[in-house]
Amino acid sequence: MAKMTMHQELEMLRKEVEELRKEKEAEEKRKKAEALKAKKAQEEAQKEAEEKAKEIMESVEEGKVEAKEALNDLLQSIKKDYENLSPTSAIVLFALGAAFGHALSSK
User: Fold this and answer.
1) H or E segment at 65?
2) Residue 78 falls inside a structural domain
3) Is 52 within a domain?
4) pLDDT tens across 4-39, in order?
5) Residue 19 within any structural domain of the chain
6) What is the rounded CA–CA span in Å between residue 89 and residue 94?
7) Three-state secondary structure call for residue 38
8) Cα–Cα distance measured from residue 29 to residue 93, given in angstroms and rounded to the nearest whole number
9) I need a labelling partner for 54 at 20 to 30 A (CA). Which of 36, 82, 95, 106 fits?
């Protein structure tokens, strides 16, 4: 093999250093791009989760309102039926309720 001169060795080392520097810069750019992409994906996932939570809360609130309305309708219906109930029917219903309550409490 032919011996390289000091200038040739220096030039070769400069080229290697420059190549390594370019590789390092490319790697850093790639890592930054990946980090940015991951951050955006995380923000999107968080935004979707917040939207879903908001939708769930709204549906729960709607369910509460509907349940209150249904309960009020039921109470009005019971009140109306009770007001129109004969005394004999009221005594029979009371007795049935008492027997049912006793049966539940004895178990």
Assistant:
1) helix 6-83
2) yes
3) yes
4) 788 899 999 999 999 999 999 999 999 999 999 999
5) yes
6) 9
7) helix
8) 81
9) 36
